[in-house]
C-alpha cells in the first residue's frame, strides 16, 4: 500500500498520503550529481584541536571539543572552494541539486558534532556526513559516487590513490575568498590525464617525449584521477551557459583553467584530449618550465590541483593548493602496498587503547599541516 495507513475508530482503515518531503527524497540518488567528499581537516582549521590532542591525549581532546561545541571552527584550506561549489546549486531546483558535499571523517560521531555545528554556523548546506572512529572513510568513495576526496592527511590520501580513488591532499597554503566566482585550476599530466607522458620522459628523455606527443597528437590521453571530476564540473558549466542564453544578465561564475608545464608541440594532444572528453576550459597556460607560481598569483584560483609538491611550493603562497599524489613522480609508499584498507581498520578492533592509536595515526605531522587533528 502506498503512503501511510491509520486505524479509524469505526474499525475501518484509511490511507494517508506520504508527506511531500518524503516523496521528494526517497530515494535520493547520487548518480547524476557532482559529489565531493571532504575531511574536516581540509574544511576547517583544526590547529588548536590538534595541539590539545597531541599534548594532552584523547580524553582531554574529547572534553575540549565538548566544551567548545558552540565555538565555530574557522575556515580551512578547502572552505572557500566548497562554499562556492555548493552555491552552484541555485542553478537547479531545490530538490535536484547539482552538487553534493559529504563530510568524510575519522572522528567518531561524538567528537564530530563540533564539525557539524561549525558547518551550520557558517551556513554551509552540508547535511550528510560519515564519521568512522579512527578508520579511513575513503573506502566509501565508490559507493557514494564521489568524484573528489580532499583531506589534509598525507597517508590517507596516498592510500586512497593507490586504490585508484580520486583523492587530494590540502597543503598549507594561502586562501582566496574575494568574490562569488569559482575558479578551479588543474595541472594536466597526472591529474586530468594519466602519467604515460611522464613515464616516457623518465625512460627515454625529453626528445622522445616530444616525438611521442607528436606521434599520438590525434589520440586522447587515458583519463587521470581527476578527469571524472572535471567532466562533472564541465557539465555544471554547460548548465551555466544555458542559463546565460535564457538570461543575458546572468554572470558566469564557474571558471576552469589548465596550468601545465607542457609546451608546443605537446600542447596539441592535451587540447585534443579535452575535446574528445567534451570539455572546454576557459584558459590554458602551456608554460614549458616557467614557474607556475607566477601565473597562479595572477589567476588566483580558489583551488589548484597538481601532482608535484615541488610545483605547489610556489603556487601555495597565493592560492589553495591540493596535491594528488598519483603516478610515477610520486611513487607508492612501500608500507601501504600490501595492506589494503584493512591495514588501517584492523587497529581499531579491540581495546580503547587500540582505538586511540588508530585515531592518532591518521593525523599528518604538524610540519606537513598544522591543523590536522582527526580528519
From TrEMBL:
Region Disordered, as annotated, extends over: 197-222, 351-375
Gene Ontology cellular-component terms for this entry are: cytoplasm
- Give the source's domain of life in one word: Bacteria
Report any one BP term from Gene Ontology: nucleotide metabolic process
Q: Which InterPro entries match?
A: 5-nucleotidase (IPR010394)
Q: What's one Pfam family the UniProt record gives for this protein?
A: 5-nucleotidase
GO molecular function annotation = 5'-nucleotidase activity; magnesium ion binding; nucleotide binding
Q: Which PANTHER family match?
A: CYTOSOLIC 5'-NUCLEOTIDASE 1 FAMILY MEMBER (PTHR31367), CYTOSOLIC 5'-NUCLEOTIDASE 1A (PTHR31367:SF5)
- Protein name in the entry: 5'-nucleotidase
* Organism whose genome encodes this protein: Nocardioides agri
Amino acid at each position: 500500500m502506498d503512503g501511510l495507513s491509520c486505524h479509524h475508530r469505526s474499525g475501518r482503515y484509511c490511507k494517508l498520503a506520504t508527506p511531500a518531503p518524503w516523496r521528494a527524497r526517497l530515494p535520493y540518488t547520487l548518480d547524476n550529481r557532482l559529489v565531493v567528499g571532504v575531511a574536516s581537516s581540509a574544511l576547517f582549521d583544526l590547529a588548536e584541536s590538534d595541539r590539545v590532542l597531541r599534548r594532552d591525549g584523547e580524553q582531554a581532546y574529547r572534553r575540549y571539543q565538548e566544551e567548545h561545541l558552540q565555538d565555530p571552527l574557522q575556515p580551512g584550506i578547502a572552505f572557500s572552494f566548497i562554499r562556492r561549489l555548493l552555491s552552484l546549486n541555485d542553478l537547479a531546483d531545490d530538490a535536484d541539486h547539482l552538487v553534493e558535499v559529504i563530510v568524510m571523517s575519522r572522528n567518531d560521531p561524538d567528537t564530530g558534532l563540533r564539525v557539524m555545528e561549525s558547518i551550520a554556523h557558517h551556513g554551509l548546506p552540508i547535511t550528510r556526513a560519515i564519521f568512522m572512529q579512527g578508520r579511513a572513510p575513503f573506502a566509501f568513495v565508490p559507493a557514494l559516487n564521489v568524484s573528489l576526496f580532499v583531506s589534509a592527511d598525507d597517508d590517507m590520501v596516498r592510500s586512497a590513490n593507490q586504490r585508484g580513488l580520486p583523492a587530494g591532499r590540502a597543503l598549507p597554503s594561502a586562501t582566496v575568498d574575494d568574490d562569488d566566482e569559482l575558479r578551479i585550476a588543474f595541472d594536466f599530466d597526472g591529474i586530468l590525464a594519466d602519467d604515460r607522458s611522464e613515464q616516457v620522459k623518465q625512460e627515454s628523455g625529453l626528445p622522445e617525449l616530444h616525438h611521442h606527443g607528436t606521434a599520438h597528437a590525434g589520440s586522447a590521453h587515458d583519463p587521470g584521477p581527476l578527469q571524472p571530476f572535471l567532466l562533472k564540473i564541465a557539465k555544471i558549466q554547460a548548465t551555466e551557459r544555458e542559463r546565460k542564453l535564457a538570461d543575458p544578465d546572468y554572470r558566469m561564475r564557474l571558471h576552469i583553467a589548465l596550468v601545465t608545464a607542457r609546451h608546443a608541440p605537446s600542447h596539441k594532444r592535451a587540447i585534443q584530449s579535452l575535446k574528445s572528453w567534451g570539455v572546454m576550459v576557459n584558459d590554458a597556460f602551456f608554460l614549458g618550465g616557467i614557474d607556475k607560481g607566477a601565473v597562479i598569483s595572477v589567476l588566483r584560483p580558489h583551488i589548484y590541483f597538481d601532482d608535484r609538491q615541488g610545483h605547489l611550493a610556489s603556487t601555495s603562497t597565493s592560492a589553495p593548493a591540493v596535491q594528488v599524489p598519483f603516478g610515477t613522480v610520486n611513487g607508492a609508499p612501500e608500507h601501504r602496498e600490501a595492506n589494503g584498507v584493512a591495514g588501517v581498520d584492523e587497529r581499531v578492533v579491540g581495546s580503547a587503547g587500540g582505538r586511540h592509536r588508530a585515531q592518532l595515526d591518521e593525523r599528518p605531522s604538524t610540519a606537513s599541516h598544522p591543523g590536522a587533528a582527526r580528519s
